[in-house]
Write a structure and sequence with these properties.
367 residues; mainly alpha; 58% helix
Length: 367
């Protein structure tokens, strides 16, 4: 995309794309794409929906609440954060009575355990869903606070992912992909192709020195990148979301288990393929994600956020952003009623603070 996109607009586009995408996909959450099409035709407007209670059009759900808590932690810390930093925000900013209204059952259980005082990086051991997109689908701010710094984005995702997953689990690995993609997307002149190349170069999580049949190999290729490359190849000829979702039916059909639609590998792969197909147009990305069926919320949130980190918010109608802000202002259960702009600016200011600290250190050490 154009080098004229400012870094601050990339931050805003990322958070706006994620929040509007999540709200757009919410009415179709859990439906097959056939069921979504029968109910809504093309879902391209924010609609009210019921999920425990009647939610105003533009209302986001549990995934964005996790992201909001992460944004608050980064904004308060004015730097990269640890799992302990984020756990402290969980405890201070999310009342159990509100969590019971807006979060998933496993979020509520994790919040209860977080209040016990055990180490934050042990919390994920108490979640039954080690492969879900619970963090991988919503950890955009980890990439933003590490803007341009792909390796540290991955390291932070592995640390913070342990709030939701056991260490080295599939969910942690795919969280690294999401954080790396966002960090790469913030680089000046980034394109979806340059982001994909960064992922292929940096997200091969390998075991060093493994021995197989007596022979020592330096690295063993991890199947995270293999799955991403397979998805990209499968969908390289797709021209619109209808063709994309039919192509993905060949790979992702999981059902019959809790959250069978919502595993991280499926959501992250679909989102990256969508952004490539629409060339990082945020509005087109969230419409494609919202109409994919299955976990339409998370796919739209991640596709919209990644597209926004590349191209900014210019292609996302301001009316949709305003509607999401208005819905948040009416939501008595959300952990923050800050606007999208306020949240994005909070993370941007934290990045600027981090950059200032780094620059001061460089000046001091180069004397």
């Amino acid at each position: 995309m154009s080098e004229a996109v400012s870094l601050q607009d990339k931050f805003y586009g990322c958070i706006a794309g994620a929040h509007v995408g999540a709200a757009l996909g919410a009415p179709a959450q859990g439906l097959t794409w056939q069921g979504s099409e029968a109910a809504f035709g093309v879902l391209d407007q924010l609609k009210s929906y019921e999920n425990g209670w009647i939610r105003e059009a533009g209302t986001t759900g549990s995934g964005i609440e996790r992201q909001k808590l992460l944004i608050t932690a980064i904004s308060e810390r004015q730097d990269r954060v640890t799992a302990e930093d984020v756990r402290a925000i969980w405890v201070s900013d999310m009342a159990m009575s509100s969590a019971e209204k807006i979060m998933e059952p496993f979020d509520i259980s994790l919040l209860a355990v977080a209040n016990s005082g055990i180490p934050a990086r042990d919390l994920g051991k108490y979640c039954d869903y080690a492969g879900l997109n619970s963090f991988a689908g919503y950890c955009h701010p980890v990439g933003l606070i590490n803007a341009g710094d792909v390796l540290n984005a991955i390291r932070d995702a592995f640390e913070l992912g342990q709030l939701y997953y056991a260490s080295r689990s599939y969910g942690v690995k795919w969280s690294g992909v999401t954080a790396a993609a966002i960090a790469s997307a913030t680089k000046p002149g980034a394109t979806i192709d340059s982001v994909i190349q960064d992922l292929i170069s940096n997200c091969v999580y390998s075991d060093v020195g493994a021995k197989i049949d007596g022979y020592k190999y330096g690295y063993l290729r991890d199947n995270v990148v293999d799955e991403l490359e397979s998805g990209l190849k499968l969908t390289e000829g797709c021209r619109d979301f209808r063709e994309l979702r039919e192509a993905f039916d060949k790979s992702y059909r999981g059902c019959g288990v809790p959250y069978g639609n919502s595993f991280a590998n499926e959501v992250v792969t679909k989102a990256i393929c969508i952004v490539r197909m629409v060339n990082a147009n945020v509005h087109d990305a969230i419409i494609a994600g919202a109409n994919m069926g299955r976990d339409s919320v998370s796919v739209a949130a991640l596709a919209g956020g990644l597209a926004g980190a590349i191209s900014g918010a210019a292609t996302l109608p301001e009316s949709l952003i305003q509607q999401v802000d208005d819905a948040a202002g009416m939501n008595n259960y959300t952990c923050t009623q800050q606007t999208i702009r306020e949240q994005a600016d909070g993370v941007y200011q934290a990045f600027q603070s981090r950059l200032s600290t780094i620059n001061k250190l460089v000046e001091e050490m180069l004397v």
